[in-house]
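Postdoc handover notes: sequence design on the structure in folder B. Input tokens:
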């Protein structure tokens, strides 16, 4: 049913829950899993760095993203799931909704309801909301079970 599943990871609890769901789906359908972490260039502008981003700040973000991807790949590998890791720079909203699905022929995106950075969500808008409304493929939004919201899982095309 799903050959290529994309799960974007940002280190948040909701992303962890989405990864678990994606692992279960990949096992069930024999899918290839694409785990992605996008170093968000908009953070630099949102937090006042503009074009003069300290190199160690960028390097720390990239290192953390690589660590998140390596952990996800290790979990998938232990389950026998073929996994491709993607570390990209850019706008996470567009990358997840449009660019990565096109480039990797993704037929399902599994993502958490909200990510790690509430300030960015307020200033720049929810990545999940953008992906649900602009995605070129199906999107499965997974809530953290500890989340007090009404809906547990939403799927839109």
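Designed sequence:
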């Amino acid at each position: 049913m799903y050959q290529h599943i994309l799960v974007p990871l940002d280190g948040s609890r909701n992303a962890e829950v989405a990864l678990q769901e994606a692992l279960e789906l990949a096992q069930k359908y024999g899918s290839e899993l694409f785990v992605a972490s996008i170093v968000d260039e908009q953070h630099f502008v949102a937090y006042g760095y503009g074009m003069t981003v300290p190199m160690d700040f960028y390097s720390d973000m990239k290192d953390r993203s690589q660590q998140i991807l390596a952990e996800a790949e290790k979990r998938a590998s232990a389950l026998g799931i073929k996994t491709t890791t993607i570390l990209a720079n850019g706008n996470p909203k567009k990358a997840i909704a449009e660019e990565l699905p096109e480039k990797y022929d993704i037929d399902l995106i599994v993502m958490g309801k909200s990510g790690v950075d509430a300030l960015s969500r307020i200033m720049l808008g929810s990545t999940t909301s953008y992906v649900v409304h602009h995605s070129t493929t199906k999107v499965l939004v997974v809530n953290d079970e500890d989340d007090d919201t009404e809906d547990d899982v939403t799927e839109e095309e």
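Context for whoever picks this up: The longest strand covers residues 32-40. Don't rerun without checking with the PI first.
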